[in-house]
Structures are given as structure tokens and as C-alpha cells.
Amino acid sequence: MKGNLAILFKGFIMGIAEIIPGVSGGTFALILGIYQRLINALSHINSSFIKKIYKLNLREAWLGIDGSFLLFLVLGMFLAAISFSSIIIFLFENFPSLLKSFFSGILLLSLFTKPLIPDQLKKGFIIGFSLAFLLVIFLWSLPIQEFSSSNLLFIFLAGSLAVCAFILPGISGSFVLLILGFYQQVILAIKELDLAILSVLFSGCVLGLLLFVKVLKKALLNYPNYMSGFFYALVMFSIPLIWKTDVWVMSFPNSQYEYFESLIGLLFGIFFLFILQRLSSIFQDT
């Protein structure tokens, strides 16, 4: 029971993070020590799982995908999205420097702690780091769109792309939605429980996730050093992405009050990550 509550809590933290453009739920899965377990569980949702369901081997199917882990993790993320969407919108609109600095502090400290910090620099790590750097350069070159259409097909496709970013540490699914112009529409749909939009978005996320996670699992298995460097760079360079407002443009504090606000957010973020890691070590879910 304690393990399930720990997973619920970690899912809750991931859900809060994923609402913010530039902050990835996958980053927190990595920081909280459940990333590999998440990838393994998702990768087992395949044709074999479908066959077990079809033959009514429900217990075997459930255990095969680490069902309890996924259930409590998704439940935590859902509770966070429902309960915090309004708060996040309020903070994002009224105290953006505080909120961005808070997450910047978390990401900054995570670069100097396990599991992100490498034991030693190897060739694979440096190559992976370089590839991630090129990806972030590409993201920096993309303008923020203003897509007002509520076409459900576009929302489905946006979900498929955003979920790939969600599962990668460092890149936020919300940031991808922001680039595509769907962020505000999705946040509003969560706030108002618009089931039509949310169900289509969820369907797109499921499809994108199941396709992408297989590729990711093979990469983690066959190229661990490359992926370590890739993830490290994604987290590092996602810090300036949090502050991105347009192509090669960042929005920084421009008053003494906002600088103080940013300092408070940065310190609180560092302290928050320290608490998270302490809780993670106490409530082991393995």
C-alpha cells in the first residue's frame, strides 16, 4: 500500500509538471527513479497484451504491463491536472517569473544529482549530448503558433506528438502543444472537463505513446551511454526553453520585484527537489 501511495504521489508531481510549457513529466519520472519502470510497463502494452485480454487472462495481462504501477501513476497525474490546472493558469498569468524560476531551480539541481549526473564522460555520452543539443536548436527555431481551430483531427495529431515529448526527459508535451497552438485550448478543456476534446486528445496520446515507447526502450537497451547524454542535455537545455516566448527570444524579469520573485522561485525549486528526492528514498516502490 505504501508503494502505491508513493507512485500516486510521483504521478501527481509529474502531472503538475506536465501542465507547464517547458517542463516535462518524463524529467520527473527520471528524477524520481521510475523512468525505466515506466518505459518497461508501457512497452508491454502490445499484441500479446491484447491477446491475453481477448482470452480473458486478465490477471496475467494486468501483471504483464505492471498494471498497478500504471494505474496509480496515471491516477496521480489525472488528479494533478484536474486540481491544479486553474492554479497553474493563475500563476502563469500573474506570477510567471516565480513559476518559471521554480521549475528552473528543480531542473538545475537535478543536473548535479542522480540519476542524471553521469559517473564518467564517455564517447557515447558526448554524442548523445550533441544530438540533443541539435534537437533543442530546432525547437528554438520554431515560432509559437496561434491555432484557433478546434478540428478534432488536428487535436488527435497534436496529442500524438505531444506525448512523445512527455515521455522524453527535458521536452515538455505542453511546450509542444504551445508550439502547435493548442495549449490554451487543452488547458481550458481540462478546466471545464470538455470530454469531446479530452477523449480525442487522449486517443492521440495513447497511439503516439505506444508507437514511440517501443523505439525508446530499444534505444535505452542498446545505447545506454548515448541516451544518458541525450537525456542530460535535454534537461539542461530545457531550462532556457521554459523562458522562451518566440523564435530565439526569452522573457526575463524586468523589475526589482520580479528579480526577487525569481530568486524566491529558484530557491524554492531547489528545496522542493531536495524534498522530493528524500521522499523518493523513503517510499521505495520497487
Query: What value does the average pLDDT take?
Result: 82
Main sheet strand line-up: 1-2
Helices and strands, in order, run as HHHHHHHHHHHHHEEH
General form? globular
Strand runs, count: 2
Largest sheet: 2 strands, antiparallel
Proportion in helices = over 70%
What structural class should be given to the helix and strand makeup? mainly alpha
Question: What does it look like?
Answer:
The chain has helices at 2-19, 25-31, 35-43, 47-54, 58-64, 67-94, 96-110, 123-140, 152-167, 173-180, 183-192, 195-222, 224-242, 256-282; strands spanning 244-246, 249-250. The chain is mainly alpha-helical and 286 residues long. The mean pLDDT is 82.
Describe the secondary structure blueprint for this structure.
Elements: H1 2-19, H2 25-31, H3 35-43, H4 47-54, H5 58-64, H6 67-94, H7 96-110, H8 123-140, H9 152-167, H10 173-180, H11 183-192, H12 195-222, H13 224-242, E1 244-246, E2 249-250, H14 256-282
Antiparallel strand pairs: 1-2
Helix pairs in contact: 1-2, 1-6, 3-12, 4-5, 6-7, 6-11, 7-13, 7-14, 8-13, 9-10, 9-12, 12-13
In short:
The chain is mostly helical. About 75% of the residues lie in helices and about 0% in strands.
